[in-house]
Amino acid sequence: MKGIVVAALVGYLLGSIPWGVILTRIAGHGDVRQIGSGNIGATNVLRTGSKTLALLTLLLDLAKGAAAVGVGALFNREAALAAAVTVILGHMFPVWLGFRGGKGIATGFGVLLALAWPVALLAALLWLLTALAFHYSSLAALVAAVASAFLAIPFTDRGSTLVIASIALLVILRHHGNIRRLVAGSENRISLGKG
After folding, report:
1. What distance in Å separates the CA atoms of residue 131 and residue 42, rounded to the nearest whole number?
2. Fewer C-beta neighbours within 10 Å, C or N terminus of the chain?
3. Is residue 190 part of a domain?
C-alpha cells in the first residue's frame, strides 16, 4: 500500500511539471498560456513558431508519463497503474498552475508506451493518419484516445485496460471545448508540412 501511495504522489508531481510553460519562457516567447488555445501542450507551443520547442515539449511530456509508470513499477504492478493515472491528473491539473494544465495527449502516450507499447504505436499511427487527413490535432487526439481504450483489450491485462480506458475518458473530457469547436466548424487546423 505504501508503494502505491508513493508512486501515485511521484506520478502526480512528475505530471505537474509544465514543460510547455517552462520551455517557452526560457526561449523568450513569454507565457504560452497567453497565445493560441492557451494550452500548455506541444500543439500550442508550436504556435510560437518554434518546431524545436514544440518537439522538445512533446518529448518531455511523453517522458514524464513513461517515467511515472517506471517509478511505480519499481514497487509493483498496482503502483505502476496508480502512477499512470496520477501522472495524467498531474499534467491536466498541476498544482503549480492553479490546477489548469494540459490535455494529456503526449503524457498519455508516454504512459501507453510503458504499459502497452503495441497499443501506443497503433494509437500513434491513428493520430498521424487522422491529422494528415483532416488537419485537426484535437480530432486526431480524440480518435487515438478512443481507439486506445479498445485496442488495450487484446493487448493488456484487465487492470491495464481499465487504466487506459480511464485515461482515454479523461482525455476526451478535457477536449470538451475542442469537440464543440469541431462540431461548429471553428476548430483551429494544424499544418504538418514544411516551413
Report:
1. 14
2. C
3. no
Contact between residue 69 and residue 83 where contact means Cβ atoms under 8 Å apart: yes
DSSP 158-173: HHHHHHHHHHHHHHHH
Domain membership flag for residue 17:
yes
Mark 117-137 as b/e (b = at least 16 C-beta within 10 Å): eebbebbbebbeebbeebbbb
Residue 73 is assigned to a structural domain of this protein: yes
Amino acid, res. 131: A
Rounded mean pLDDT, 42-61: 92
Composition of the chain by helix, strand, coil, percent to 5: 75, 0, 25
Q: How many Å separate Cα 43 from the centre of its chain?
A: 11
d(CA 14, CA 18): 9
Taking the C-alpha atoms of residue 172 and residue 142, their distance in angstroms, rounded to an integer, is: 6
User: How many C-beta atoms lie closer than 10 Å to residue 38's C-beta?
Assistant: 12
What's this model's pTM, rounded to 2 decimal places?
0.93
pLDDT digits (tens, 9 = 90+) for 71-117: 999 999 999 999 999 999 999 999 999 999 999 999 999 999 999 99
Contact 96, 107 (CB under 8 A): no
For residue 117, the surrounding DSSP H or E stretch is helix 117-134
What is the extent of the structural domain holding 61? 2-184
The total number of structural domains in the chain stands at: 1
